[in-house]
Amino acid sequence: MVRIAGVRFKKACKVYDFEAGTLEVSPGDAVIVEVEKGLGMGIVVYSPREVDEAALARQLKKIVRKADPVDIERQGFNTEREIEAFRICKDRIIKYNLPMKLIRVEYLFDSSKAIFYFTSDMRVDFRELVKDLAATFHTRIEMRQIGVRDEAKMIGGLGPCGRNLALNPVKISGICGRLMCCLSYEHDFYQNERKKERENRDKDKDNKDEKDKGPERPPRGGGDRGRRPPGKAAGGNNQKHGCGGCGKHEPSKHEPSKHEPSKLKPEETKETEETKEEARPAGTTENA
Known about the structure:
It is a single chain. With about 290 residues, the chain is of the alpha+beta class. About 30% of the residues lie in helices and about 20% in strands. It has a five-stranded antiparallel sheet with strand order 2-1-4-3-5. It has a three-stranded mixed sheet with strand order 6-7-8, sandwiched between helices. The chain is flat and about 100 Å long. About 10% of the residues are buried.
């Protein structure tokens, strides 16, 4: 387990985590911490808390010590140099006619580097400006371009909350000229709610269509229900039956009775008898 405390370097700036070790600090204390290149001075935001070292994504820098009166005096000297550097840099920007707006100048705690923050709508060639500033202040110079939202945060600009306001383009813009941050943070929430609303509306429409359609009905005329098998005229299996294959009688009932008179014509009867005579063997006689 490691003890971690939050430190902020500037007003409205991001809070960074630092390893406190065994040092006891409280919110509001000025501390000297390790930074990327050298030392920096910041203010403790929240008291140290224990965190599992395995849960840390990277190795944290350490809090070196609490700031003493000498450190606070040195920080005040750096603040005075920042004000002077800001004024000189603005004059140099006008001199070189550069399309940029200077926002802030920040000196590192050990005065080893000065950072100039600016905004611009285009790419700026500030090589001559850097050479001039380095010769003037005798330290390393860094030019850092930022956005309009960072500008509003640096100068401590505060605007009205965007909640419960009419969607008027004039009223939903912050002092930076962009969409209010609170509305920008809620943009994803509004998108998800609109997506859910569309899905529910489509689902209700499908259910309504199914309800209006009703149960499926059989085809008109009853289909094949009650249809009789094809009879004689249709060439079906019952074509030998005299009734045309109604399917209600036994096959024997459709055969002509032996006692019923033959319906053959006289010519057909005569031919039949002659055929029977020819079929008999020679020399045989019919019994009486």
